[in-house]
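@channel sequence for tomorrow's demo:
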Amino acid sequence: MKKIYQILTITALALSWNGCSEPGNGDDDKNTAPSLVYFTNGGIHPLTIYDSGEATFSLKVGIYKSSGTEKTATLTVGVLSETTLDDYNEANGTDYSLLPPTCYTIDNLQFAFAKGETNKELSVTLKLAEIKALMETAAAEYVLPLAITEASVGINARYDSYIMIPEVVSPSLGFRNGGFTVFDNETGNTVWFDIDLSIESQWDIDVVVEADANLVTAYNEANGTAYAAFPAEGYTLPAEPLRIASGSSSVKLAVTIDKDKAPAGTYLLPLKISQVSKFTVNELSSAVLLEITYTIDKSAWAIWDFSSEQPSTPGTFAGNGPAVMLIDGDYNSYWHSGLLTDGQAGKEVYVTIDMGSEVTVSRIDLSPCLNFGASIVNAGHFSISDNGTDFTQIGEFSGQTNPDNPGNAPYLYKEMAFTFEPASGRYLKMTITNSWATGMAGGNWNAMGELTAFQ
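structure tokens (generated this afternoon):
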């Protein structure tokens, strides 16, 4: 018997974990290459096991013998020693600890390939309670490192080891698409949310969803917004707990929204999974914030005043430029201020809108010029007035860093929403205080695609 002992090396654990089959050419007698044995999917294998109440978890590890001059083969698989694992940790900058033998059983470590055989399976049974207890009492990352330690034929050093990193976790529930979402009134008054369990359930699991106004406060503080919690009279939640039935892994939550039953405003409906009859709630997906807004009709709007505009003529601005294009509902048109050569240097840059009657405003969305790809606006503020002369500032706006151009200063590179405490008036003024063009040759010019206001 040809005995080969393989010491675990960096090469033996190269970061290529796909299976490597080497099928024969159909005629074993004509294959003159040496036979090799190895793990079918050698390498490092993180293994997440959900604790569903079972005592053990079993898995199969494939072992392959390539066709070659040797028609039969025998081999032995062993668990690497702590000394060998320490050598690997030092060479690779890892800090693995050896999984204790009390946490697993292996059915067989000796294998014999008869003529024509190419595949064998090693059976490993993991003891979940023991592993979970180990994880709770120690911060180490435990591994079960298997290696082909000897064989009667050659050993493929690239796949001579199989290191599993077991982790036992409790199943959890959460919203499939948790976080911030927008209510689309055009699709009807019922909004559906999927709640998922991380495994297929073996039990009936009850789920309670409630509104939690604290989530609105936390969101406002984190994002500098001024949303209010959507009033209870404007929505209906299920009267009974939802149920994830045995054999299933999800359930749908239906929320009925009736905006007419709540006063106009800029709201968030904060929904949170508050109770489950089994397992835990995933905190990262435990809640959803549904934005509910009331758009102000622009049909009665008109431009009251502006600092400057470009005439609507063909050429550089392709027919764009007049201030009225800021409120025409066309996101492909845009208002463009005058240039430095037009005597605009150092002057206030603004557009004032007559909304036709007194309106309460709590949010304004600004859209950039699609023709430019951005509005080139950095910052400014909103003001409101009853008479078109005496204005009170009600909110500020500023751009963000564009992830596609992180080296540039923040600007309005996409449509952005700005919320503030509700304020009432007939005349709405947008004043731009800073833009990319400020100080540039021919500069202090500004442009904006569309302004939309919400009650």
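heads up for whoever presents: Helices lie at 82-92, 128-137, 214-223.
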